[in-house]
Specification:
Shape: globular
Number of strands: 22
Largest sheet: 11 strands, mixed
CATH class of the domain at 1-218: Alpha Beta
CATH architecture of the domain at 1-218: 3-Layer(aba) Sandwich
Helix content: 25-40%
Number of helices: 24
Radius of gyration: 26 Å
CATH topology of the domain at 1-218: Rossmann fold
Strand content: 5-15%
């Protein structure tokens, strides 16, 4: 199967307002618009983050991208959603509103994994909490619709990406509709949406309607009818009979259903060929004009097993080169999820990072510190995407599994820009990485194989034989970056895929000897095979192999350096026995974890499907298939977390009671396998919110 091509990002026609040139900062007020000579904005972006003109922040990339296409772009950042005036500050846009919750999902930004409200926000000046609403995309969209009812609304960003179909919502413990429906927006963009956004903007600038832009890759739209000539692959059930050919007329046609014969005659029915999913591999039809019908919102709400099945289908249709349209009914509405965007080429990605970013927050924030900016101000993103496929991670659902890498020249130029332009730079690049540290320019060795592949991970259960694992591009980049005048140190702080790194000892040596600042954080996540299989993470043997290399190469340069492993508590499939085994491993290796990450069921991830359904979407889902038990109540989740923090004596009373109930008294006292000491009395867990008995509403 050949790889699909897309129009070059650099070749789209420019809008007439290109004559206004480049703004120092995209305007956030009428006064700034006046200084630029603008009477209006063509596009207004509303965002839940503060405006930082830096390529690590979505609103800056999208704003500068549209500006480069010739549009006058204004920003309304962190508006007070209770005030109509905050949405009128820049007037009415000529083309559309673009709405994003920001760099994070607003619910994850606002609440901890225990559903406790956070009182700070890293994307807000001064770190102040409460500056964005819960479910920000919905709230902002509805407010825009109230203020300017006739202006089109385009939603995007990670909150929209992860909620593009019916999704389990951890905070309300229910299935929610596609955010496109709840927000009453016109178009949803998912993933890295540069090309789709340009096509949408071009369409609106040419007076096209939403109905004229129904088939743009990387978009989700609502359709009232199925286009003529399309074939439906029916995946709305999982209990097809064994002899599926015996189904009466599996190629039947849909007709408009109505009780009124006259009304039926007035409705133009479009014949649709329907093929049961189990037969779709053998049936003869045009796959470019076919769609997969997912179980409806109503069905996945009523049946958790069908939810897991829908999740499996969605993830199998994630390769942009072979993915088909997905359709999901929501009441009277049909959500059409067009195939994912074609990844940007290196040349296109370089152009995105070459826009005239100021690399600092907007001047209106004055001297206020924005924690997220302070963290990344001296860091550089060298690539996008991740082919790891970890089930608990949202990167692949948003950025995809195909790696998009910048050129050496582009990255080295950005280092020089930081050196020359960013206030306070001391010569240290804090991170040279991305979603992962070591997938730069790694891809499938055969484009045709990549185009036909439907694997959920290139590195699980083992590293694919077709995957390029040579880290030379990354190693060479490190060496050239270190030679830049004025650069004292370049650190690598992004997540390292160590099972991949051990395939290239030269890379590990380069990393360990030159780019580790004493500590290197890595993420085994667990030690037990049963749980690791639900995470799609490698077994712990890979960690030992990497640790051996790390220590060897550190010793060669006489450096005392340490690995800091990360682990997850309460992940689907992990029971108390698994957590005890992990705790014993930590004790054996003398690790005392101060911070433990508790599994956070983010929308649309495979692990969240396991959490909600108790079924495994990594395999064909069956009603009597593999069960995946998981800690669901706050108390159960806190127990698993406390086991990993066995060294904290304040937990000993609770743990002693738990261990005794499990018949594991050997874990108490001074024995070889003891995790905690003897305690005189025990206490039980207390929580302010008991999700097991009282359903919270968000």
């Amino acid at each position: 199967m050949p790889q699909l091509k897309a129009p070059n990002l650099l070749n789209y026609p420019k809008y007439w307002a290109e004559c206004y040139g480049t703004a120092p900062f995209l305007p956030m007020s009428r006064a700034e618009m006046d200084e630029l000579g603008w009477d209006s904005c063509d596009i207004i972006i509303i965002c839940g983050d503060a405006y930082i003109d830096h390529p690590s922040f979505g609103m800056a990339i999208i704003g500068r991208l549209l500006e480069a296409q010739g549009y006058r772009v204004g920003l309304i950042c962190q508006p007070d959603w209770t005030k109509k005036e905050d949405f009128e500050v820049l007037g009415q846009p000529n083309l559309f509103f673009g709405i994003s919750a920001g760099n994070m999902d607003s619910m994850i930004n606002r609440y901890t994994a225990d559903k406790r409200m956070r009182h700070d926000d890293s994307y807000t000046p001064g770190g102040e909490g409460g500056k964005r609403p819960d479910r920000a995309v919905i709230v902002y969209s509805q407010k825009c619709r109230e203020v300017y009812p006739d202006v089109p609304i385009v939603i995007g960003g990670i909150e929209s990406s992860l909620r593009r179909i019916a999704q389990y919502d951890y905070w309300s413990d229910e299935i929610r509709r596609s955010v496109l429906i709840d927000s009453a927006a016109d178009i949803l963009l998912y993933g890295n949406a540069e090309r789709a956004l340009i096509e949408v903007a071009l369409g609106f600038s040419r007076m096209r309607t939403v109905n004229d832009m129904q088939n743009i890759r990387g978009t989700v739209v609502v359709k009232s009818t199925t286009p003529e000539g399309w074939v439906e692959v029916d995946s709305t059930r999982i209990d097809w009979p064994a002899n599926i050919d015996s189904i009466p007329n599996p190629y039947d046609y849909k007709e408009a259903a109505t009780c009124d014969k006259k009304q039926q005659a007035d409705v133009e029915s479009v014949p649709i060929r329907i093929i049961p999913q189990p037969l779709s591999g053998k049936a003869d039809f045009d796959r470019d004009k076919s769609f997969i019908r997912l179980p409806s919102f109503e069905k996945v709400t009523a049946d958790a097993v069908l939810y897991a099945h829908a999740s499996r289908v969605l993830h199998q249709e994630s390769n942009p080169h072979n993915a088909r349209v997905l359709v999901q009914k929501h009441g009277q509405h049909e959500i059409w999820v067009n195939p994912p965007p074609i990844p940007l080429t290196t040349e296109e990605l370089d152009s995105v990072f070459a826009y005239p970013y100021q690399r600092v927050p907007h001047p209106s924030y004055k001297d206020a510190k924005i924690p997220a900016f302070e963290m990344i101000r001296f860091s550089i993103n060298i690539m996008r995407g991740c082919f790891g496929g970890c089930t608990f991670c949202s990167i692949t659902e948003h950025e995809g599994r195909i790696i998009q890498s910048r050129s050496e020249e582009s990255v080295l130029q950005e280092i020089e820009d930081i050196r020359d332009k960013v206030p306070g730079f001391t010569g240290v690049i804090s991170d040279l990485g991305g979603p992962t540290a070591n997938m730069y320019h790694l891809n499938c060795k055969d484009p045709d194989i990549q185009s036909s592949c439907r694997r959920l991970s290139c590195v699980y259960p083992g590293i694919c034989e077709n995957l390029i694992t040579d880290h030379k591009p990354t190693t060479n980049l490190y060496r050239k970056a270190r030679k830049i005048k004025g650069i004292k140190r370049i650190l690598v702080a992004s997540g390292l895929r160590y099972d991949l790194a051990i395939r290239d000892p030269e890379y590990v040596r380069e990393l360990v000897q030159h780019h580790v600042g004493g500590y290197l954080k890595i993420a085994p996540e667990h030690t037990e095979k049963k749980t690791l299989s639900k995470m799609m993470k490698p077994e712990i043997d890979s960690y030992y192999e990497f640790k051996k290399m790390f220590e060897k190469f550190s010793k060669e340069v006489d450096k005392k350096q340490y690995l800091i492993p990360y682990f997850i508590a309460a992940h689907p499939g992990s029971d108390s026995e698994d957590m005890i085994n992990l705790a014993l491993w930590l004790k054996k290796n003398d690790f005392k974890l101060d911070q433990v990450q508790t599994f956070y069921p983010s929308p649309m991830s495979l692990a969240t499907a396991m959490y909600h359904s108790r079924h495994n979407p990594l395999k064909k889902v069956k009603y009597k298939g593999e069960r995946v038990e998981t800690a669901r109540s706050i108390d159960e989740r806190r127990v698993q977390k406390s086991i990993l923090r066995y060294h904290d004596e304040s937990n000993w009373g609770n743990l002693a009671e738990i261990f005794k109930k499990m018949g594991r008294g050997d874990l108490i006292g001074d024995g070889k396998n003891a995790l905690i000491g003897e305690v005189k009395q025990t206490k039980t867990f207390k929580t302010k919110h008991r999700q097991s008995t009282k359903k919270q509403r968000f």
